[in-house]
Design a protein that fits this description.
The complex is a heterodimer. Chain A is an all-alpha fold. Chain A is built from 10 helices and no strands. Chain A has helices spanning about 10-30, 35-65, 70-75, 95-115, 125-150, 155-170, 180-185, 190-205, 230-240, 240-245. In chain A, helix 2 runs antiparallel to helix 5 (about 125-150). The radius of gyration of chain A is 18 Å and the shape is globular. The radius of gyration of chain B is 21 Å and the shape is globular. In chain B, strand 1 (about 250) and strand 2 (about 255) form a beta hairpin. Chain B has a two-stranded antiparallel sheet. The structure holds fe (ii) ion (FE2) (2 copies). One fe (ii) ion binds next to helix 7 of chain B.
């Protein structure tokens, strides 16, 4: 079965859903791998927010598309090329600095996007955005606090977080390559980019982290279903059971 | 007998609670530290076998339920470390003892989680066995531990229900799912029963702990309660308990069971179970690889405190 997404509104929402889902899956990897127990629990909490959010967004997609497919079908039965998450969130948990940097850069983006969606006319999206923004405020504070601790803490933590920022910045430009669909459902995409840049610049400065230049790396766009090599592995693991036992209900 | 000992004995005698500020015999304190730190480590190490299926949880709902469950277990760990700290041991010391092999955790977590139904079996049987034990510990003589158990038991019964729900889905599902469910029960049945520890006659820590009312019911009593409660649940699932001697006994009013494989039990306790080394190595690696993060947090706190002044 190949699952296509045909409606523009669904195309727009599935991008958000996939991004939240894959970041949630990445954060699940941190379970029992955190630097101490409180932080382990905090990361699980963020993962739980993200996956819950993804589920709600998939439900919206499924309602718009109206093909008799469930939220789970969208999450578990699409291949890499049918996924539409940011490459940023596919990046691995190389160390704790990578985990935090990835979340921070994502959270600033998501915060700006969902703020605009408070006025969305896609059914149920405005209401969901209200709830999501409350969560993101916590998620963002959590990530921001760690960026400061790591940036200012020790020489080692500074160099690790600098490395993570340098790497992750390669996956930022594609976020801002807005297409017609984005512009149809977001009221002001230019404002998102502007706010993202000013928040991130200010934080990096405060955290003693050098801001890398945003250079366009040659990579095809996530909106067309082009990904890093990581996504295939993430989906292989995540979708294993429903794929191996297509008739089973869990 | 000195007056401190007399006051302590009176608390125990009257079934009151010993509080952190009260005088207590060193043996009592050490016994509690051993038991509570072991309990805390069990909660934390128990995150690993369940975490093994987190990335592969087969639905959005089951992934969220499992994530929340593992998070609860981490929370229990935190809570219990704090209880132990009221007895004058730090979390760092307890973690060092774990890493040095001086502190134990429940042997059940040294068994691997091999298929998705294991997540059901762990919730149903392992949390189920833990509840029987912990309900009894709600009346333990050390106040903070007793209060901790009351709080923790509420969450544990959720875990057990959620585990049973997975088993129900699997047992009533496709033939392959039912096979997974039976396989999980086959592997977890005896290890869960052995979670209650050696028979009363062979239990090194039990008699003292019973006198002090740290432990309120014996290993065998608790184990039998669990068996009697669980066998009908397995029958309801349509699964077979992997013990041909597990039958209702009219005379005793309990289910019988075959003798346990205590050689296996002691092998696992003493480090030679299927995953002992992996569990400990995993914990050490996460702790050691992230030392720089904890150092950064401390350094940051120092720097920002000094700028605040
Ligand atoms: Fe627990
Ligand atoms: Fe539990």
């Amino acid at each position: 079965m190949r699952i296509t997404i045909d409606n523009d509104a669904a195309k727009f929402v599935v991008r958000l859903a996939d991004t939240e889902m894959i970041l949630g899956q990445r954060l699940c990897e941190m379970c029992s791998n955190g630097p101490f127990l409180e932080e382990d629990i905090a990361l699980s909490n963020v993962a739980l927010d993200l996956i819950g959010r993804a589920e709600q967004l998939y439900k919206i997609v499924s309602e718009i598309e109206n093909k008799g497919l469930s939220a789970d079908d969208y999450a578990y039965r699409r291949n890499e090329r049918e996924y539409f998450c940011l490459k940023l969130v596919e990046q691995p948990n190389t160390d704790f600095a990578w985990t935090i940097t990835r979340s921070y850069l994502h959270d600033v983006y998501a915060n700006e996007v969902f703020k605009q969606l408070l006025k969305s006319d896609i059914p149920n999206l405005a209401g969901l955005s209200e709830k999501v923004l409350i969560e993101i405020r916590y998620n963002l504070t959590h990530a921001r606090d760690w960026m400061l601790r790591l940036g200012i803490g020790t020489e080692e933590s500074n160099s690790r977080v600098q490395g993570a920022v340098d790497q992750m910045f390669r996956y930022v430009p594609e976020i801002f390559h807005w297409d017609v669909v984005d512009n149809k459902y977001l009221s002001d995409t230019a404002a998102i980019e502007k706010s993202w840049k000013s928040e991130v610049s200010a934080l990096l400065k405060e955290a003693n982290i050098k801001e890398p230049e945003l250079m366009d790396v040659v990579m095809r766009d996530y909106r067309e279903g082009f990904h890093s090599e990581f996504l295939g592995h993430i989906l292989t693991e995540m979708q294993f059971l429903p794929r191996a036992y297509p008739d089973a209900k869990w | 007998m000195d007056k401190y000992q007399a006051a302590f004995d009176a608390i125990i005698e009257k079934d009151d609670r010993v509080e952190p500020r009260d005088w207590m015999p060193d043996d009592y304190r050490n016994n509690l530290i051993r038991q509570i730190s072991q309990h805390a480590h069990s909660e934390v190490i128990g995150m690993q076998p369940e975490g093994n299926w987190l990335l592969r949880a087969p639905s959005l709902r089951s992934k969220q339920v499992l994530l929340a469950k593992i998070q609860d277990e981490g929370g229990h760990g935190l809570y219990l470390y704090s209880v132990a700290e009221t007895l004058g041991v730090s979390r760092e010391e307890m973690i060092d003892q774990l890493h040095e092999g001086k502190a134990k955790y429940s042997s059940i977590f040294n068994y691997p989680a091999l298929n998705w139904a294991d997540i059901g079996a762990i919730g149903w049987l392992v949390d189920g066995a833990a509840i029987v034990n912990q309900v009894s510990l709600q009346r333990t003589s050390y106040g903070p531990y007793s209060r901790g158990m009351i709080r923790i038991c509420k969450e544990e019964s959720f875990h057990q229900r959620q585990g049973y729900e997975i088993m129900l889905h699997m047992a009533k599902g496709t033939p392959e799912q039912k096979e997974m469910a039976q396989d999980a029960l086959n592997r977890f049945w005896f290890p869960s029963l052995m979670m209650f520890g050696p028979h009363d006659a062979d239990s090194a820590h039990s008699s003292k702990a019973m006198q002090w009312k740290i432990k309120r019911e014996s290993n065998d009593t608790l184990r039998q309660k669990f068996i009697d409660k669980t066998v009908p649940q397995a029958e309801f699932l349509g699964l077979t308990v992997p013990d041909p001697n597990c039958k209702w006994n009219e005379e005793t009013g309990h289910y019988d069971h075959s003798p346990f494989d205590w050689d296996e039990f002691w092998a696992v306790v003493n480090g030679n179970g299927p995953c002992n080394k992996e569990r400990l190595d995993h914990h050490k690696k996460a702790h050691n690889d992230n030392a720089w993060v904890r150092e950064a947090a401390v350094a940051y706190a120092k720097k920002t405190e000094s700028t605040l002044v």
